[in-house]
Design a protein that fits this description.
The chain is mostly helical and 138 residues long. The protein is built from 4 helices and no strands. Helix 2 crosses helix 3 and helix 3 packs antiparallel against helix 4.
């Protein structure tokens, strides 16, 4: 699932003409760039054991992912453009976003399955895999 749209990518380069089937890159290519970068973001989030898809209640995190998705696509747009004075700047923004995704506290919920908890829930302790309440004091 993409977090950004063509409008988000366009907003990062205000002086650029709108994407169409005749522009370089084309509108369809920009859609693919957005989807490609969203896929990369999802892989990073899954690798960090975040719950996927990101719950809609996490509006701040989703807004951040929207920006990062747009920045990633913008890097590809600038690389594909015939003449771009923003190529280095756009790709530096994407690299910084990836670093934050890989290392920062994103404020997202952790996937319970990463602790070995089945998606249906369980009474097992996620740290040690032991049933809670299994020890009696007597």
């Amino acid at each position: 699932m993409a977090y950004a749209t063509i409008s988000h990518v366009s907003a990062l380069d205000r002086g650029r003409e709108p994407f169409t089937p005749a522009t370089k890159p084309t509108e369809a290519e920009v859609v693919r760039f957005i989807e490609q970068r969203a896929g990369e973001i999802d892989v990073i989030l899954r690798t960090r054991d975040y719950l996927m898809p990101v719950p809609t209640a996490y509006t701040g995190a989703l807004a951040m992912l929207e920006l990062y998705n747009a920045q990633g696509a913008d890097c590809l747009v600038q690389q594909a453009a015939v003449n771009s004075s923003r190529r280095k700047e756009a790709c530096a923004a994407w690299e910084a976003a990836k670093k934050l995704l890989m290392e920062g506290d994103l404020g997202l919920p952790i996937d319970p399955a990463s602790f070995g908890i089945p998606s249906g829930g369980t009474d097992r302790d996620p740290i040690f895999g032991l049933a809670t309440g299994a020890y009696d004091s007597g």
